Amino acid sequence: MLELAEDEATTLARWARRPSSPQSLALRSRIVLACAEGKTNNVVAGEIGVNPATVCKWRRRFVELRLDGLCDEPRPGAPRKIGDDQVEAVIVKTLSEQPVNATHWSSRDLAAQTGMTQSAVSRIWRAFGLKPWLTDGFKLSNDPLFIDKVRDVVAMYLNPPEAAVVFCVDEKTQVQALNRTQPVLPMRPAQPERQTHDYERHGTTSLFAALDLATGMVIHSMSQQHRTVEFVKFLRTIDRNVPEGLDVHVILDNVSTHKAPAVHTFLLRHPRFHLHFTPTYSSWLNLVERWFAEITTKLLQRSTHLSVRQLEAGITAWIETWNDDPRPYVWTKTADEILDKLARYCQAITVADDDEPTTKLAN
Q: Please, what is the average pLDDT of the chain?
C-alpha cells in the first residue's frame, strides 16, 4: 500500500483541486491519492478513466521521487541556432550605435543589419531588458542644501511635531477651462467615450491647495493670477482655518513667490508659521503633488467647462466631496533610504557613461 506523509497528502489535495494547476499535474495527484487509499491499479484506472499502465507509472514515480516525481522532467528542446557572439553583437550595436535614418533601432532595422530574424532580435532585447523606443525623464537636484532639505521634509512626514499642523502647499497654475468643439459621445458597449481632439479655451485659473498631512483634508483657494499677493492671501486663509495655539508647518517649493519680502513680512506677523522648502527640482518630495495628480486624473483631464467660473465651481465641488471622506497619504521612505537610492542611481549613470558596452555586457 502506498503511504503518504501529512504534508504530502495536503499538497496533493491542493494540486488536485486548484483551478490554476496544470491538468496533467492534477490528474497525477488524483491517481496518487486514490492509490494511497489502498486501491489496486485497475480499480484506480477505472475510477479516474485512464489506462492501468498510467496508474502504474505514476505510482512508481511517486514511490521513487515522492512529490518531485509528479512534475515533468526538463526537456532539452532544439539546439541553439544563435551563438553568444551573435547575442553580444546585437547588444553592443543596440547600446553603442544608431541607425542612419533614425534616432533608435527598431527590431526590423537591427535584424536587417545583423542578418538575424526580427523575432530573434526581439527575444534578445527582452532577455536583456532593452527597449530602444522608450525614453524616460530625470532631473537631478543641484541644490547645495539638498541633503539638509530632504532630512528636514522627511522628518516632518515621519515625525511631525506635537501641538502643530503640517501642510503640504503648492499651486497648480494655468488650469484651463476647456470645451470640446463637438459634444462628447458617451461610452457604449465595446466603445469608449469619445471626444474631439480639438477644443476651445475659455480662460485659466490657478488652484492654491494645502494638504493636511494628518487628516488628508484640503484647504484651497483659486485666483486668475499667481503672484506673491495671492500666495500671502492663501497663507491667511490657512491661518484662519487652523485653531489658535497650534503651530503651522508648511512644506512648499522654491519658487520666487514663496520667498518674496511680503512673505517674510507675513512670517514676522505670524510667528507660529514655519516654512520648510523642498530641494530645487524635487517637487516629488511634496505630497500635495500626489493630490494634484488625483484631481487631474479624476476631474480635469476629461471634464469640459464653458467658463472659468464654471471650472472653479467644478473644482470646489470636487474638493468638498474629497473633504467629506479625506484620505491622507502615508510617507514610508526614510531620508537615509532616499539618499542611498539616489547615490546608487548616480553611481549607475556614472558607470554607464564611462564604461564601454562590451564591459557592461561582461559584468
A: 88
